[in-house]
User: Fold these one by one.
Assistant:
Number 1:
Amino acid sequence: MRFPKYVQHWVDAEGRPHCYFRRRGFPRARLPGLPWSPQFMAAYEAALGGPQLAVGTKRTKAGSVHAAITGYFTSLQFRALRPGTQRMRRAILTRFDAAHGDKPIALLPTKFILHVLKDMKPFAALNFLKAMRPLMAFCVAEGLAPADPTQGIKLPQAKSNGRYTWTESDIAAFEAHHPIGSKPRLAFALLLYTAQRRGDVLRMGRQHIRDGVLSVKQEKTGAELAIPVHSELRVILDATPSEHLTFLVSAWGRPFNPTAFSDWFRKQCNAAGLPQACTAHGLRKAACRRLAEAGCSTNEIAAISGHTTLQEVARYTKAADQARMARNAMARTKNESASVKLAEV
């Protein structure tokens, strides 16, 4: 069996297998479960995106931005973050390090942070502050900086309707181009009929379905969901061959990396002639929209999507067909009126 890169494997004297993540410059990490299983790959992804050890500290100038960021990446505060949050903040801080790593962290003024923010787009600026504030809190706690220069900085509220919600025309176009039994149609169906995030869909496998119910533990929230398998999804699952522990695998037969999956799914959308706005996350929103149009309450929708607040559900269902729901409401009113007249006769 081939193992993922940086995985060391051996069997002990009692016949028990052991797998460890071993990469130069990174902490050694035990990988539980069977190789390539969702449990194994979740631990592997966490180790791969985890804190890099402070290699070459002799060449790192003490008190510099680079030294502070290097120390923060190895801190308990950073390691306690969810893997997805770690990846995003690591990318932001690494770019900041590349541009300003030689500067003294203790002397960064608020004016400098504002200068960095001024050329950023609203959401990029917001994400930058979300990454910088924990870094500076770490620096203050460790005595590397006297104060946090990001404190007091307020950004104008970024206005956005969020990710584009697929329309029924978009859905029909994708289905028309990618037939049942193909990998693109399987990925599409898993996203649309489970209403889950990309990362959670990529970890799904046949072992998660029992008695017609799909068990999901969300990576972002930790919520454990039991989702009945939609009849349309069942047809597609039955028609699509799967020899792996996850439904979706790369061309090399390995579980998808989230970024690689997004690139691959973008190509499938392009092949179907869909606009660039159509993304995997937009299908999660389309699923919530469909549930709203079917008359489901916000609590019922949240029971499937796993949203932690009803406000989030409301935001996701803004694209619900208002005209259709209005017709349904009027139809109920007419039915109730007819019932009253019959009762009076």
Number 2:
Amino acid sequence: MPINVVMPQMGESVAEGTVVRWIKQIGDAVERDEPLFEISTDKVDAEIPSPAAGTLSAIHVTEGQTVPVDTVVAVIAQEGDAAAATPAAAAAASASAPKASASEAPDGSSAPLTATSDKRAQKSTAASNAGTPAPVNGQSAVASQPAQTAAGSAQPGAAAAASRGATVIAHPRADMSRDDLRRQRSSPLVRKIATEHNVDISQISGSGISGRVTKNDILKFLEHRPAAAAAPAAAIAHAPGAPAHAAAAAATALQLPHVPAYAPGEAVEIVPLSVMRRKIAEHMILSKRTSAHVHSVFEVDFTQVSKIRDAKKAEYERLGTKLTFLTFIAKATIDALRATPVINASLDGDNIVYKRDINLGIAVALEWGLIVPVVKHADEKNVLGLSRAIADLAARARTKQLKPEEVQAGTFTITNPGIFGAQFGMPIINQPQVAILGVGAVEKRAVVVDDAIAIRPRAYLTLGYDHRLVDGAVADQFMSMVKKNIETFDANSL
């Protein structure tokens, strides 16, 4: 039975991915877990392994194309499948079935598909074009059944799918609630942005598959809606008892003009943003718009940790890992998170979601961007386990060997600009988390100890937190615990 290869979700807030490069081509034999294609998202650039052994019989998404998660991007034919055809046979099948040979890309352009002689694969492709994600386990759509969503309603773009030969039974849109329309036309991330900015998704023209509203669509809509900016002002102005200054402030919420980045004739080099850099930019803007960022900075004495590190460093190297200051900071942070559950939580509308697991994200700087792999169940690891896990994730991040699940489900993030010499930073929260810890350089400084000048290794730690959920007192209590855990670190806990 042919196996559908889908666009993986590389993080809980990631709704789409871009195919950067196909490592395998039509007709190539592939082994299970062998790199199949490379993708780029705002979370990670990664090589995606093949879910099964067989022959790559169809590619549905071309290089450079961006599609929502769970979209079928390719088909792998296993031994005995009719779809396990040579490229020549695939071309012949394509000629005999032209309606299955092309699909409309999210940007409206025509993206080539390679049709196979396996009718089940064709049905799966038709279901995908109709807006219904094909099952991940390789089961294909059945032609005798209507192409419907899990809720039982037809996806948008059904008419276009029918024109390509798909069997579709459309339900009247009048029978569907606004929430139903939102669910079928957008991802959870897009719905969250729409709710926070009071946007009706049904009014946005989607560029995704079958009219799906993507994150780019709603962000562009928010940037270019002067009429929408005036609506809240009018509502405030007419609200009974509304302060005059509130209405005036809302009325002046105008779009900033575009300032040219260079003048005509100026000596410049123009390079397009990479997929990862563009998506990082979008994610950072979204985070600043979503969370009420506040930062607290604490200076921490690393004298005790330095003594332990000097004593144990050689032993850890014999065990195949390095004992870094970051490992001690991670352990101290985990213990503080356990005692302060709200820092390890998330906001979901009017609800607080307390995470029972402590999944620690560690920001890793790459030549082409930034990535945050996650140490799952970090609170169950000792210092040695944390050291190994952090080093392993960082090494595989730099070689694009991370698995999709290794950049998902983070509950708190640590970023370490101190390795480049920064005294401290004001990091942006990694959504949907509510806090992030920035680590400054550990340096020897002259300080006052017992009314005398002494030289001590010290560093600044910065907590960025979402003031919608975390009060300043709670944030400072958390940082006080982190500081105490580091300054009184127990050598017996290693």
Number 3:
Amino acid sequence: MQATVADIFRPRTAGRAIGYDLAAALAGSVLIALLAQAAVGAPVPITGQTLGVLLVGAALGSRRGALAVVMYLAQGAAGLPVFAHGGFGLHHMLGPTGGYLFGFVPAAFVVGALAERGWDRKPLTTVAAMAVGNIIIYAVGATWLAIWLGSAGRALALGVVPFLIGDGIKIALAAALLPGAWKVLGRSSI
């Protein structure tokens, strides 16, 4: 296992490390919530949310990244307006976009696990890790949406195809940001 960006700053003492992990996950959940507000369209809006989920997963690692997403979902379930367009509540989580929201958890975990194996240190492997994360989000989200719409074809047309170009741009951004962060930290293998 290799260190994630967050591991570099993690305290060594157990009590402080746990506090750090919780604070890092909370900060990750806030970043996701902020990026979710950059949203256009419906019923599945184009947002910065997926970029946040995948960056948080890579930066924090599998467990802290998944925890950050769980915290984000809990904030929304509790009534905080953290979802796209200021959405919140269980009705939002169980609506047409619910599958995408729930798909964020395994996506962050898997991208974090790949980052723990060094996939976030080079642009090409970062692209691959982010693509895997997006595929997970699409698989869970489009399946959920297909159940809502009663049609897999409509779910793909409304919940996947319109997002491919934007997600490609987000992946390219992540491929610049993550290896760039490692370079700034002086631990790059580029």
